What does this fold into?
Amino acid sequence: MRQAAGRLLPVLVLGAALAAGGPAGPRPAAASAEATVAVATNFLLPLRSLAGEFAARTGHSLRISSGSTGQIFAQITNGAPYDVFLSADAARPERLEVAGLTIPGTRRTYALGRIALWSADPGRVSAGGAAALATLGGGRIAIANPEVAPYGVASQEALERLGFWEPFQDRLVRGINVGQVFQFIGTGNAAMGFIAQSQLAARPEGREGSVWVVPAGLHGPIRQDMVLLKRAAENDAAFAFLDFLAEPDILARIEGFGYSAPTD
It folds into this structure.
C-alpha cells in the first residue's frame, strides 16, 4: 500500500498525447492515468509550462484548474473532485490533513514564493521600498485579498512594515487572487500592485513597466505546500506527479520561475 494540493479559471487538459513529440524516457508499467490538479493562481503559469514534460516522462496527464487558495480549499471541503492540491500556503493543506481529507505522508513544500511590486509605467517603482510606494499619489494600488490569498497576506505585511497600509486604505483594490491583480495593473485599472514574482514573465509586450522585487524580510515566508487528496489513493498519475515535482531538475525549473527552493 502506498503512502508517502468562488470561480475557477477555465480548465486546461494536458494529455499523454503531448508525450508523442517529447523526449524519450522511462515510462511506468501502469496504464496512463489522469490527475485533476487544483493549483493556486500564482503557480498556474509554471505548472502549465511543466505539464508537457510531466506527460513526456510518465505518459500520464493532468487536468488543471486554478483559483485562489481560499476558494480551492472551500471547494475541497465541500467535496470538489480534485486529486492534487497545490496551495499557496502551508496552512490549508495541513488543515485538510487534520480533517482526514488527504493521503497520509503526501504533504510537502514544493516552492517558496516571492512577491514583486509592479507598475506598467517605466521607472515608476524601480527605486523600491517607500520611495516606490510614495509615487502612488492619488492612484490605486492592487493586492490579492488577504482573506483568501496568501500572496495578499504577504502584500499586506509588506505595506504594514513600510508604513503604507493605513494611509492606502482608500486606494486599495483587492483582487480575488494574484491573477486578477495582474489584470488590474496590466489594463491600467491600478497604478501599481503586488503580484507573484512568477507572473513577471507574462507581462504584456510594451507594458513591462517597472518592477521592485520585495525583500523576503518584509513579509512572512510564503511556504507553498502540495498534498494528495483521498480520492487519489489509487491514482498513478497523482503519485507520479508528487515525485515529479521533487526531481532536482524540476526544482531548478521552479526556481527559474521566481521561487526559492524548499529548505526541508
In short: The CA atoms of residues 77 and 96 lie 8 Å apart. The chain has two domains: 12-112+223-256, 115-213. Residues 44-58 form the longest helix (15 residues). The chain has a mean pLDDT of 90.
